[in-house]
């Protein structure tokens, strides 16, 4: 064999081996050349067959905006099979994201109580798009063969950090007149191709919220105005609904969805009903709370929203009720700086957040700061240079976040500078958000400032984080915050919830003094008593009483409550509880599960030490030892 | 017995004789600055002499030469005479404070209303000419006045004024309170930066509109550039039906510099006052109905001054009137509160406490001196060019009140300014010109991102009544549902137009929309507009000669109060009809005076001019002249 032939042979073999692993799957390569990234359309065999023409047009459309796109179709045996292929595509073709069209197996994730709000199985495509997470297969659902149940792996990372972005275009199957499922996909893809030909600046947005305090709403509105500066020109460009208890404005939301010029709708606490009648036209809709995106159901709302009549393109929704502390629009302003929707969401993913529709949809750029080229930038020097010139607040936030993801060493100093000098609430929020993850001195320093920030969202972020940490050193700051936030209902509520995580006597000791010297009450004693009365009552004051009760039902409730209120002072007692072989092993395991949520606790080390000891102590059952290992992993 | 009476008479005549001689103490400070005058009644002077001296010294050390005038004042005119003298002097006057028991002028509202308003505009606006009516039979310190026919109607104060008045029947208590207050002023530093603000409004204040509440936060940032950048820098209390507890607490916060309390009900304020608490905000602005009713012994504004807290002054109304806070930025720059208070002043708005007080001076323009130089238009034009919302707002006010700027010059500030306060002030400034630019601005303003501008625009639209405004109103009505207050105002604004035009505009817009229930909504509009409206009915009824004259007059007043522009032609026809009763024709001419901004103003003026040249009765001509004045 000549050398050149030999090389050709090797190439051929390597190509064949790639194809070989894909085997019965078919791959259609991009038309345009891949330089640094690509995108994958993944579908099942019959969808490919029935929608081939539209899939190709969609591919062409995406490629026309410079993103090489391949199509992969196969009748997927199980989620693992697909995940393996995605990992290969990532390696070979540098895919940055994927859209799942048609019948794609649905991973249902258990044992992820520390990552979410619920303890039931969570439909989650993080199985596919976060390559670091590991999963242990449990079973395929007998009632719905599309569903595959997994435990989050015992050694899996304890945070979400998606490697690629993903979205679903999953047709609705219902008895009603939604039409043939392939027809739905064809119509949707046609719509995408058509709508994406038009230039679209983000200059029309709307938001709706029903139950929220005025000041919280005001702060969130300000965030959106910083993120989307074009909408502040005239009143109608930012229709900002704050409803009241009569829900007087609810009907107007439907008319907003129907607007043909609306770019983004951000929806809180809105019960979607009769979606088919709405015929929405808004390009991107964010359902920030209700689980409208539970795609394990055949007629899930988010799907109806984009697949029905109307030009609605993409919806962001959740498969289960998300945590109320989740900031659904974090870094969203990057959408006006060149990021596509998938790229943005990847920065702010949770286990339950999902995109429905075309994740590569990109709005026109409206700021001098174009950010998409920095999304994979690893050169921190370059990022810092760009940051120093960045004008828009959202560009600054994005770049700080990139530096954080790149583990830049000088970040503590950088975020402190930005926090101290920025007039933008969104930038200060980002600094606090990053400080929370950096821990250590910078966190303490920025939290001390952040809890007094002029912006309410920032104060809330700090207070919620303090509750997770539980260090009694924060008590004085919380008491002061209580006195300073009398005008801010939501902050007072967050303080109350946070203080549940602290020892009552410690709180009293500090409060006695703080209230005595306070100069902002007309009657200090009365106000102090009002504070005690309010703080030392309520649902969560009796957590320990329940846990150490004799009634198993109460005990279970107490242990579950620990996921909401991490009562750090009793960690020693909880660990004794776990060690105590006289106690029902299910309760001890439940306790370990709840302790998984103590990842940010200042007493994490004690829990970790106990878990290490339990893991190897063969006097305990294997189940308990396994759970201890899992807990150790979850908090580390 | 006779002898006894006689000696009393002699005593009285001596007293009168001695006290009617007003005593004037000259300033001890020699500068060319305009002067300030402390006016105090003899008794109070006698009991608080040292404190007054201390106060005078304090004001003078702040750069203002200060007179003290005291004596026995029987009537407001006794004082006004002295004020005019000082104002006319070369040094002139920048302000006055009335301490103690100073006669209270009760002024009949300019629009001819039946109740009189306590108003010190009698003293401080020397352009206005008043006619004395009587002294109150019970409350001897109240004196009733009405405006003379020849008097201007617009308020344009010649200097600022304030009261330090402790109403009580126990005089000793009053002297002690005034003493303590004056010493408090003398001891309070004037370099306190305005960096802590609290604002409270109740739900009704914005018609329950949350957007209005939220938007106000953004203008606070323009008003108050020096706020500490922390949670305690600016506290905007949520609007609730009852904010009493929160208000009481905020009044205790020692760091608060300015506290704005605005609400329709005054219960909280009265509670606060009743509790006789010490209050700490240096300056309080109370936009609550009777807080400044100084004709009442229980007027609440005063309660905030006479306690051991830090409060120096309170702005409040003696009668219901909206409080314009658009000049609040000048407080941040350290302008004297009296100067700021005087901008856009109304009949009922009053300052209680020391009007010379100010926060730390932060401006680079020496506005405390410049602001009284009304004539220097070139200066205000230069100031308008500075990229600073606080300067621009003031410049726009000065240029428009001096009527020295064209609407072309103002328009760019309305259309392009990134500052909400500036756009709002520009809209007000344009309203003076009553021209095409103003109408265009109102049309654009309906969609301004600042809710208050849109709301003001609806009011102006009502005053203008030009049918070119219907499409913009329709657009705002259809596409701006998140602003509750604007929505309510638009609905009532539609009533000043021809209903057929409105109906057509609304149904067409709905038809072209993509609203889910557009058919139902179109039907609802149609049924609503098929019912005859009150004002439309009134127009028919005033033409009906079989109706009693009084009823027709009442109806025309209703039509004009509600700015029913489509009725103008009908009203003019009746005025021009010599068959109609003269009394009716006169009343109709009076009624037309409310159409000062109407798009048919020229028509009205032309008609009245013809009337003046005709052989009409003298009374009718007098009334026509008066209405012409009001329309110009």
TrEMBL record, chain B:
**UniProt-recorded name of the protein:** HEAT repeat domain-containing protein
Q: What InterPro entries is this protein classified in?
A: ARM-type_fold
Q: Which domain of life is it from?
A: Bacteria
